[in-house]
C-alpha cells in the first residue's frame, strides 16, 4: 500500500493521486461552508468556507489535490490552510483516495436537505 492510498496520509501525499468524498458521506451546504456527515463513522465535520466545499466537490475531477486547488484559483498563501483542512478530512475518512478508473459524481440529490 502506498502512502497516497492511506486515508490518514500526511498532507504531502494529498498532492499525489485523485481523491473523492467517501461514499458514506453526505454534504449539507451552509452559509458558512458545509456540514459533512459520515454515515459509517457517525462523525460530523464542518467546512468553514464555501471555497473548501468547492475544492472538496471538485476533487474527483482532478488528477491530484494541487490541480483541484489551482482550478479553484486558491491563492498560494491560502494553500496551507486548504491542505490542513483536506488533511483533517482524510484523517477522518471524509475524503478517500479515488478508485483509479472511476470518477465519483456528487449530485445535488445526495445533499442533506
UniProtKB/TrEMBL annotation:
InterPro entries: MftB (IPR023850). This is Mycofactocin biosynthesis chaperone MftB. It comes from Rhodococcoides kroppenstedtii. It comes from the Bacteria. It holds the Pfam family MftB_chaperone.
